[in-house]
Design a protein that fits this description.
Blueprint (H helix, E strand, L loop, with lengths): L6 H5 L6 E6 L5 E7 L2 H6 L9 H9 L2 E6 L3 H15 L8 E2 L5 E4 L8 E4 L8 E3 L6 H14 L17 H4 L14 H15 L3 H17 L3 H20 L11 E9 L2 E10 L2 E11 L4 H9 L3 H12 L8 E3 L7 H12 L4 E3 L4 H21 L2 H17 L7 E10 L2 E11 L2 E2 L5 E4 L18 H25 L6 E5 L2 H13 L7 E4 L6 E2 L14 H30 L11 H11 L2 H6 L2 H8 L1 H13 L2
Parallel strand pairs: 8-11, 11-12, 13-17, 17-18
Antiparallel strand pairs: 1-2, 1-3, 4-10, 5-6, 5-7, 8-9, 9-10, 13-14, 14-15, 14-16, 18-19
Helix pairs in contact: 3-10, 4-12, 8-9, 14-17, 15-16, 20-21
């Protein structure tokens, strides 16, 4: 563990708040964290090894630590956020905004604003609404702003001096601010204000304003304008009635966080609630990095509290926090976060874990949306594999998740050319690069005799048991010598006898603590060491399907190797054992003399003309010794 080398440096750190930064040997930033006491927090890493694959990977790689002292832990939190944003350390949780769905941009920085489709939110002074799900709703909504409010859709520079308006004005989809005699800047500004209310979802307020202006225009006998306002009001009211509103008077202004963490990373859904109504949904995502090490970190799953804390810090760097933030689990240090958020807006901000009622219902809704987002964004196969591993752990009552599974199979035909295979399944996926094949050695020390089954020949049964014992002992003797990797579960293709042979091998080398099971082919029953009766798993369950997939792969690999061994045996020639003769010289001799018998009858001079005197002497010596 590389971090042990930093023990003396950690002991000299101050007991003050600040941030600490871990670096690797290349000087790359690995992790940035905050602490109330830098000495205590960094020294806690010395005893953290083995608690999480993610932390273990960090501790193995870290070679240097630096600290920055601050006046308070709140300042440390702000500094931590800035450094993480600037350096993007590999071991920090880095969530990113949802970029898959479009937003609508009201270009309020222009003199005559337009409504455009945008793929991301920028801090450019314009107004953004969304995201829109599905994406076609964005263009439909943009079209409504043209039809209902007359917002322009052109790219022209508006000066008001155009001679006549374009076709958009004639079909009543633009107020024509390009012709000042038709639409003044003040009138267009009113349309922009209405559009802003519409995009913000404040339809009640917008409908009331349109109704008031309609009555005013009607009273002044501006009937054409009143009719336009009436049509706009009716459209807004219809949309309000059809809209699926998530609204409750008691919700007020708050943000609701839902989270789903899994094998491939995490998804956080943030519901923006204003005036008791959800006006926007924002999705944040953390994707696990590729590679076996990072995959193991992701499979372990970062605790929800850590993900929520990272989400709050990063989300409110770009957004203004409301008075209340609802989260499913409390972050590690909510008081510090509340103080930091309060300083940003100069008022009190509370982080709350709802327990009942409408607030808890909204939290569960955010959770369901996060789970849906997770399924849509990440590989469904990886998620299914992880679920299968969890089901297998529960069914077999394993002490930990079986992330690495080794499976053995024996292949033989009446004791001839007996071979074995071992396949490896990691994180629910087969790892062909770690497959191994074995030839059963006749000179290997045999195990204690096994009791044969009454319906099977003794010789065959004893051969299977001896072969399994030999292969398991050879494999894990090598693993023990190399210091790993040790499996979380060993699957033996066979019943109780084969399983006992495997455990005998494990006990002989001091690895009886490893967990092994037997999987019988016909009945698909699972045999364990602790029970005399086999276990029948759900035939339609993920656990049995995973075991069958691994066992079938081991069987395929063993059969393939067995066929190769038989083919090699059948193609083997007596000449292959003669020193100095390989495939090429064997072919040359057989071509020259027609057959093995012809080679045997050839004289030394005849052989020397084909393969030279040295090899000719070796051929004659071989046949003389075996005559």
């Amino acid at each position: 563990m590389a971090i042990q080398d930093l023990r003396e440096q950690m002991a000299r750190l101050p007991e003050q708040p600040g941030i600490y930064i871990y670096y690797n040997a290349k000087g790359e930033t690995l992790y940035v964290g905050k602490a109330r006491s830098l000495r205590d927090r960094t020294r806690s890493y010395l005893n953290a090894y083995g608690m999480s694959p993610r932390h273990d990977a960090l501790l193995d790689e870290a070679t240097r630590i630096e600290v920055i002292v601050t006046d308070s832990v709140v300042e440390a939190l702000a500094l931590e956020n800035n450094v993480i944003k600037q350096r993007s350390p590999r071991y920090n949780i880095l969530l990113r905004d949802d970029k898959n769905y479009p937003y609508l941009q009201l270009t309020t920085t222009e003199q005559f604003p337009r409504v455009l489709v945008a793929r991301s939110v920028e801090r450019d002074g314009n107004m953004y609404a969304g995201p829109f799900l599905p994406a076609k709703f964005a263009r439909r909504t943009m079209s409504l702003t043209h039809k209902v409010f007359g917002i322009r859709s052109c790219n022209e520079v508006i000066t008001g001096t155009r001679q006549r308006p374009c076709l958009e004005y004639d079909i009543k989809r633009c107020l024509a601010p390009c012709v000042v005699s038709i639409c003044s800047e003040e009138r267009y500004a009113v349309a922009v204000a209405d559009t802003k209310l519409f995009l913000e979802g404040r339809n009640d307020e917008l409908a009331d304003q349109l109704r008031g202006r309609m009555l005013e225009a009607s009273g002044d006998q501006r009937y054409e304008e009143a009719a336009q306002l009436r049509d706009a009001m009716r459209t807004v009211e219809t949309l309000r009635e059809r809209q699926q509103k998530m609204a409750s008077a008691e919700l007020g202004d708050r943000d609701v966080f839902g989270v789903k963490a899994g094998a491939s990373g995490a998804v956080v859904q943030v519901f923006i609630v204003r005036g008791g109504r959800v006006i926007e949904r924002i999705e944040l995502m953390w994707a696990a990095e590729s590679g076996p090490q990072m995959a193991r970190m992701a499979q372990n799953q970062e605790p929800e509290a850590g993900i929520i804390e990272a989400a709050i810090q990063q989300f409110y760097l770009e957004h203004e926090p409301p008075p209340e933030i609802h989260v499913p689990v409390a972050p590690a240090d909510p008081q510090v976060l509340e103080e930091w958020l309060g300083q940003k807006v100069d008022r009190k901000v509370r982080i709350v874990v709802p327990q009942r009622g409408t607030k808890k219902g909204m939290m569960e809704l955010a959770h369901r949306n996060a789970a849906l987002g997770y399924r849509q964004r990440f590989d469904t196969n990886a998620t299914a594999n992880y679920d299968a591993l969890e089901s297998l752990q529960a069914a077999l009552r394993l002490p930990k998740l079986p992330r690495r599974i080794d499976c053995f199979d024996i292949s033989t035909i009446q004791g001839s050319e007996t071979v074995a295979s071992m396949v490896v399944c990691e994180e629910g996926r087969m790892r062909p690069s770690e497959y191994r094949k074995f030839k059963i050695r006749k000179d290997f020390p045999s195990p204690k005799p096994q009791v044969p089954s009454p319906d099977t020949s003794e010789a065959r049964f004893l051969d299977d048991f001896a072969a399994m014992e030999q292969v398991v002992r050879r494999r894990y003797s090598k693993v023990l010598e190399n210091g790993g990797p040790f499996p979380d579960l060993i699957v033996i293709d066979g019943g109780k006898g084969q399983l006992n042979a495997a455990y005998a091998a494990l006990e002989s080398i001091g690895l009886s603590n490893l967990v092994a099971i037997g999987l019988a082919k016909k009945e698909e029953l699972v045999f364990t060491r602790d029970s005399m009766e086999p276990l029948a798993l759900d035939t339609h369950g993920n656990a049995l399907r995973l075991l069958q997939r691994i066992r079938d792969e081991a069987h395929r690999f063993a059969i393939t190797f067995h066929r190769q061994s038989r083919r090699k045996r059948d193609l083997q020639s007596e000449l292959d054992v003669v020193p100095g003769i390989g495939l090429r010289r064997r072919k040359t001799l057989l071509t020259a003399f027609g057959s093995l018998s012809g080679v045997r009858r050839a004289t030394r001079e005849e052989l020397a003309r084909v393969v030279g005197t040295k090899v000719a002497d070796a051929v004659i010596a071989h046949f003389a010794a075996n005559s």
